[in-house]
Specification:
This protein is of the alpha/beta class. The chain has helices spanning 76-85, 103-117, 133-145, 164-177, 188-200, 207-212, 215-232, 244-255, 266-270, 273-276, 295-307, 349-358, 365-379, 463-470, 477-489, and strands at 5-8, 11-14, 17-19, 22-26, 29-34, 42-45, 50-53, 55-60, 88-96, 121-122, 125-127, 150-154, 180-184, 236-238, 260-264, 312-313, 397-407, 426-436, 439-443, 446-447. Helix 1 packs across helix 2 (103-117).
């Protein structure tokens, strides 16, 4: 039977190796992978190109209200178009519950908007800010059973923060229902105390954001989040890790066999606090939480990605415009406490890493695939449908030209943010053709699919949850012993 479409003569790279094989696609799925396949109804000549799994970006914010009530600049159309042009075929943004919101309505709302607009496939995590009895006992278990198998909690932000007691409740639901908790680990009171003193002294410029969000706040909260996860007996994903201190804490837990996982993002590999220290409000374009740190932190993050202490690299695309709708609600008088937190990165994520990682020899092409696609799919219950090029997997493919030079600028990106923190940087390596479930989404620098053609992904059990529940003995010390006893008596 003829293939609907073939990609031939390229070098196929998966997380576990590379090979010169052709790919034959039927009905949106990879039907064959071997050398010398016959030409399909449509054929892409990938001679001299690398053929990679489409990127999976498992941390991005789309059409979401922030804790401060500010709406993202990207909707599900612009975000998925931008992601596709950057070599991605799957995103997992958040459905955000705010205090007073019921989860079923949150999920219905985000689902409706995404279904109308997305051009590539998507799943959802939840953000939990209202862990009341209805949410914990009824709505969250139902959402997990419906395929939303991960959710994020915040240890900071007035409007989102959970206390440790609530965190334990949430972790416990994750354990019993088989879901993965993601945590924003920063100590709320350390940041609040520093910020208040800074503002009182008139230090309101963007650069003080990085002072208030001290590395100590991340270090303390990371340690505490891990301790809470140990007590609850539940794996934990620490998102947007930015400091050597947090890396060391995560590595120490992992060395003890505790299932703690970590993620980092472009802003921590490619920006520093010096980028925020600019005249006027310009530095607001680089403000995210945690903030970019320094060169020492960057080196530690590269190393942690290579060794697997941090298993994935996501954009944390948080698209806010440099105007009153996002970064500057009070114009030039906006203090660092009042501006929207976050930077865009859906489209630049993969080219930045490819250029600075693969093309300099800092990481292998296989490691690049692993941290930017495969581990996301594995971690969030999408593997092997996504994140790998294999017979039976979705034909989600990015054809990369490893030598193409592109100078990043807001005008050539497809999001609606209006600036990029990476303006003027030249990257080497670009995803020229992007295929999602056998549909050519991007080719010749043009979009070839319609709004609403992306599919919702009902996700399975996250791999860390499976791994933890199949083993035993990773809860440590007296608390674990006491908890086991308590469970036996229950
Ligand atoms: N956390 C995120 O994950 N993204 C943007 C801002 C934040 O605090
Ligand atoms: Zn966060
Ligand atoms: Zn985020």
């Amino acid at each position: 039977m003829t293939f609907d479409f073939t990609i031939r003569h390229g070098t196929v790279v998966n997380a576990d190796g590379a090979a010169s094989v052709d790919i034959g696609v039927r009905d949106g799925v990879i039907a064959a992978m071997e050398p010398g396949l016959p030409v399909g109804l449509r054929d892409i000549d990938a001679r001299g190109r690398f053929v990679l799994p489409g990127g999976v970006d498992s941390h991005c914010h789309v059409e979401q209200l922030s804790g401060m009530g500010l709406m993202c600049a990207d909707d599900f159309y612009s975000a998925t178009v931008s992601a596709a042009f950057g070599g991605n075929t799957t995103i997992i943004p958040f459905g955000a519950q705010h205090r007073g919101n019921a989860l079923p309505e949150v999920i219905a709302d985000y689902s409706r908007r995404a279904a109308e607009k997305a051009v590539i496939d998507y799943g959802f995590h939840l953000i939990l800010a209202n862990p009341d009895e209805q949410t914990l006992r009824v709505d969250l278990p139902q959402a997990i059973r419906d395929g939303i198998t991960s959710f994020k909690v915040f240890m900071t932000y007035d409007a989102l923060k959970l206390d440790d007691f609530q965190m334990l409740d949430v972790l416990d639901v994750a354990r019993t229902e088989g879901a993965l908790v993601m945590v924003h680990a920063e100590n709320h009171d350390m940041i609040r105390w520093l910020a208040q003193r800074l503002v009182e002294r008139g230090h309101k410029a963007p650069k003080y954001h990085a002072v208030a969000h001290t590395p100590l706040a991340e270090a303390e909260a990371t340690y505490r989040a891990i301790a809470l996860s140990q007590l609850a007996g539940t794996p934990l994903m620490i998102v947007h890790v930015s400091t050597p201190e947090a890396i060391r804490t995560i590595a120490a837990a992992q060395a003890l066999g505790v299932p703690i996982y970590g993620e980092t993002c472009p802003q921590y590999l490619f920006l520093t606090a010096e980028d925020i220290d600019q005249p006027g409000m310009e530095g607001a374009k680089f403000c995210c939480s945690p903030p970019p740190r320094d060169g020492v932190a960057q080196d530690a993050l590269w190393e942690a990605l290579k060794t697997g202490v941090l298993r994935m690299y996501s954009s944390d695309h948080a698209p806010y415009r440099f105007d009153e709708t996002g970064k500057l609600p009070h114009g030039n008088k906006t203090s660092f406490k009042q501006m929207a937190n976050g930077v865009p990165g859906l489209e630049a994520r993969l080219p930045l890493l490819f250029s600075a990682g693969v093309n300099t020899g800092r990481m292998t092409m296989e490691q690049f695939v692993d941290v930017s696609a495969t581990q996301h799919a594995r971690t969030y219950g999408l593997y092997p449908r996504k994140g790998v090029l294999a017979v039976g997997s979705d034909a989600d493919i990015a054809v990369w030209n490893a030598t193409r030079e592109v100078t990043l600028s807001a005008s050539m990106l497809h999001d609606r943010v209006g600036y990029t923190p990476y303006e003027g940087r030249t990257v080497t390596g670009w995803p020229e053709i992007v295929v999602s479930r056998g549909r050519v989404v991007v080719e010749d620098n043009a979009l070839h699919v319609e709004a609403g053609s992306g599919a919702y992904l009902r996700r399975g059990t996250p791999e860390p949850v499976l791994a933890a529940s199949s083993g035993s003995g990773w809860m440590m010390g007296a608390s674990a012993h006491a908890f086991g006893t308590y469970r036996d008596e229950a």
